[in-house]
Write a structure and sequence with these properties.
Elements: H1 2-28, H2 35-49, E1 54-58, H3 64-92, H4 99-113, E2 118-122
Antiparallel strand pairs: 1-2
Length: 130
């Protein structure tokens, strides 16, 4: 079932959201200071490309630098990427078939707003990252 949902997701919105994260990552990697943010954008972009079967967990070693980085991320790119997830999530929820895909879009909003200090792991092992 995960594979079917991932393929439908990829066709309807996953590829376009991936391109958005890729653009944000490239723009953020232009400066040396933005490289960690760009890497986070690439990591979330891969998650947005194929989200079913993966989940986000908090990293136990994340501290104050990731909190400060999340504030900067929210200002630079997070707000716009989260808005993309809201718009596509609402559009997908207008059809019965699209409801699981819309809910997956809503699931991506928290990690698109505050990505630092989080890790993306397979759903069958969400607690091994801790």
């Amino acid at each position: 079932m995960k594979t079917i949902l991932n393929v439908i997701w990829l066709i309807l919105c996953g590829f376009w959201m991936f391109l958005g994260y890729l653009l944000a990552g490239v723009l953020l990697c232009i400066t040396i200071i933005g490289i960690p943010f760009g890497l986070a954008a690439f990591r979330i972009g891969v998650y947005a490309l194929w989200p079913f079967g993966q989940t986000v967990v908090e990293r136990s070693d994340a501290g104050a630098p990731s909190c400060i980085g999340n504030v900067l991320w929210l200002i630079l790119a997070g707000w716009w990427l989260a808005l993309g997830h809201v718009v596509t999530g609402i559009a997908l929820c207008l059809t019965i078939i699209g409801i699981p895909l819309g809910l997956a879009n809503f699931k991506l909003i928290p990690v698109s707003l505050l990505p630092l200090g989080k890790e993306i792991v397979p759903t069958d092992q969400p607690f091994t990252a801790r």
